[in-house]
Amino acid sequence: MDPAPESIRDSYRGSGKLEGKVALVTGGDSGIGRAVVLHFAREGADVAFVYLEEEQDAEDTREAVEEEGRRCISIRADVSDPDACREAVARTIAELGHLDVLVNNAAQQYPQSSIEDVSCEQLEQTFRVNLFGYVFMVQAALEHLPKGGAIINTGSVTAVRGSRALADYAATKGAIESLTYSLAQQLADRGIRVNGVAPGPIWTPLIPASFGEDADEFGGDTLMKRPGQPSEVAPAYVYLASEDGSYVTGEFIHINGGGRMG
């Protein structure tokens, strides 16, 4: 990508907010997921992350975490498969010892200008990855999350604004918001906080791959007139995963450059 996304600022200084914690992040090989993995590591966490097929991206991310002095395992898995989700959690526990934070972030999108062009196969695939995968990961992780644990779901500004070219994707993000609020109610008595981050237009590999030449205009309709960087989103996940967010559950943090009003 030109310019390359910024995963973490050189000036970002960790302060041990996640010292001793273990996190599992889906879609952690690039984009927002990679930024979350790196911020968690700089804050002292050991991290496992799930990726689909980008072996080099996964290796680069793993090496970057190890440069932070933390343990890291990369797990190739399809989150639309409940068995693969259970195996990813089991491997995290086996290799890193426990699990404190689950970040559901993996997603797919396939732009279509008309709902008439959204095939049954596309609709099912988008929901299986973007929504079913979140449910499957939560189901697999819950028995391992302790009191004080956290689940963080990646939503989107499209959940509240919709998207002309991404109707099915936006629908999954709306469902993720409802799922997050419902899980927060279910799990409060167990001491597990459930929140979400709703990014606006963030410069990740998903954008040029999805929008082609139109990617040049990406983010131009926000108040800030530009896309955000993954490094501008990931600190919100640190806040929600750490003790700083101990009184926050059933909430979404919107990071979109004023995109809800732009």
Structure notes:
With 262 residues, this protein is an alpha/beta fold. The chain has one domain (22-255): Rossmann fold (3-Layer(aba) Sandwich). The protein is built from 8 helices and 7 strands; from the N terminus they run E-H-E-H-E-H-E-H-E-H-H-E-H-H-E. The chain has helices spanning 31-42, 55-67, 82-96, 120-141, 158-161, 167-187, 206-211, 234-241; strands at 22-26, 46-51, 72-76, 101-104, 150-154, 193-199, 252-255. A 7-stranded parallel β-sheet has the order 3-2-1-4-5-6-7, with helices on both faces. Helix 4 (120-141) links the parallel strand 4 and strand 5. Helix 1 (31-42) crosses helix 8 (234-241) and helix 4 (120-141) runs parallel beside helix 6. It is globular, with a radius of gyration of 17 Å. It starts with 21 loop residues before the first strand and ends in a 7-residue tail after the last strand.
Key descriptive features of the protein:
262 residues; single chain; alpha/beta; 8 helices; 7-stranded parallel β-sheet; Rossmann fold
Short summary:
With 262 residues, this protein is of the alpha/beta class. The chain has helices at 31-42, 55-67, 82-96, 120-141, 158-161, 167-187, 206-211, 234-241, and strands spanning 22-26, 46-51, 72-76, 101-104, 150-154, 193-199, 252-255.
What's the helix and strand layout?
Blueprint: E1 22-26, H1 31-42, E2 46-51, H2 55-67, E3 72-76, H3 82-96, E4 101-104, H4 120-141, E5 150-154, H5 158-161, H6 167-187, E6 193-199, H7 206-211, H8 234-241, E7 252-255
Parallel strand pairs: 1-2, 1-4, 2-3, 4-5, 5-6, 6-7
Helix pairs in contact: 1-2, 1-8, 3-4, 4-6
